Structure formats: C-alpha cells, structure tokens
UniProtKB/TrEMBL annotation:
It is a multi-pass membrane protein. It catalyses: an acyl phosphate + sn-glycerol 3-phosphate = a 1-acyl-sn-glycero-3-phosphate + phosphate. Pathway: Lipid metabolism; phospholipid metabolism. This is Glycerol-3-phosphate acyltransferase. Catalyzes the transfer of an acyl group from acyl-phosphate (acyl-PO(4)) to glycerol-3-phosphate (G3P) to form lysophosphatidic acid (LPA). This enzyme utilizes acyl-phosphate as fatty acyl donor, but not acyl-CoA or acyl-ACP. The gene is plsY. One of its GO terms (molecular function) is acyltransferase activity. Its EC number is 2.3.1.275. Belongs to the PlsY family.
Length: 189
C-alpha cells in the first residue's frame, strides 16, 4: 500500500494547477512569463489574484490529500511523510509537464499541514512575517521551511528525515533566487 500511495502522490503532485488554470483561462504559460515558475507567486504576477489563489489552494491540496489518505489507511507517520514528499517531488518534477515544475512551497505546506498542523502554522507565521518585512517571497520560503525542522525533531521525530529532504529540495529549487538575493537582484512585491 505504501508504494502504491507514493506513486499516486507523485502523479497527483505532477498536476500543475498554474499551467492548467492558465490554459483554461487562455493566459500565458507561467513557465514562459514572469519568473518562469509555475506556482502561486508567479501566477499572481502574470495572471492575477484569482488564479493565484486557485493555484495556491490546488498546490496545497496536492500535499495534503495523500497524507490524509495515508492516515485513513493506517500508515505510520514516517510512511505518511514519505508519501507527502512524493507529492512535493511530483510538483518539482512533474511527469506531465516535461519535469519542469515549481518550487514546491505550497505543496510542502499541504504536506506539513497533514503531518503536523503546528509545523504548518509555524511555517505560515514565519513566511508571513518575513514577507511583510522584506516583500520577498523566496526569502520568506527559504526561512520558513527550515524553521519547522526543530519542532518536528522535538514533536514528530518520525517525520524528520523526510522533512529534511523536503527542506533540501526547496533550497535546491530556490538556488537561482539565492544567487539573486545575494546579488541584490531578487524580485519584490
């Protein structure tokens, strides 16, 4: 059951709501506009608030739904965390879109919400505070995700290894943003 759910989570994660919603609305491919990232932040830039919010909700649900199914089927927290990570990997490297995906932050938030809601709330609070102070989404994401690790280590150690892999993947996907942050060129809102 674990492997089947992990594969299904990856396939679900591979659905890119940014690309699908852009196509339905007749808008530009978000991978070819703005930052080139098919995620909620870029959708806000290229398609407006409505599609950005819909993308955010869709991406969040991709991380949450597999965890809820795994819980319902009685899988362990450790297994749930790996299944949630499979959904995030699907978002990062989507099978349906030539493996050109987003940065995984909203899908990771859904994963954390399913695994341990206090970790998701901590990440959300940190993200909001950093964003309000800097108006930089990438910096907020790069700070919020690692902040959940000590809480998970303390309260949900079975989820720690998959959460560490998640954090490493998110930092990796933000490597261009890191270069731009250090060079003072990162986009702000």
């Amino acid at each position: 059951m674990f492997w089947l759910l992990a594969i299904l989570a990856y396939l679900l994660g591979s659905l890119s709501f940014a690309i699908l919603l852009s196509r339905l609305a007749g808008g530009p491919d978000p991978r070819a506009s703005g930052s080139g990232n098919p995620g909620a932040t870029n959708m806000l830039r290229v398609a407006g608030k409505k599609l950005a919010v819909m993308t955010l909700i869709g991406d969040l649900c991709k991380g949450l739904l597999p965890i809820l199914i795994a819980k319902l089927l009685g899988l362990s927290l450790h297994q749930q965390a790996w299944i949630g990570l499979a959904a995030v990997v699907g978002h990062l490297y989507p099978l349906y879109f030539r493996f050109r995906g987003g940065k995984g932050v909203a899908t990771a938030a859904g994963m954390l919400l399913g695994l341990y809601p206090p970790a998701a709330l901590l990440a959300l609070a940190a993200w909001a505070l950093i964003f309000l102070l800097t108006r930089t989404s990438s910096l907020a994401s790069l700070i919020a995700t690692p902040l959940t690790l000590p809480l998970l280590a303390w309260q949900q150690p079975a989820a720690l290894l998959p959460a560490c892999v998640l954090t490493a993947l998110i930092v990796w996907r933000h490597r261009r943003n890191l270069r731009d942050l250090f060079a003072g060129r990162e986009r702000r809102f």
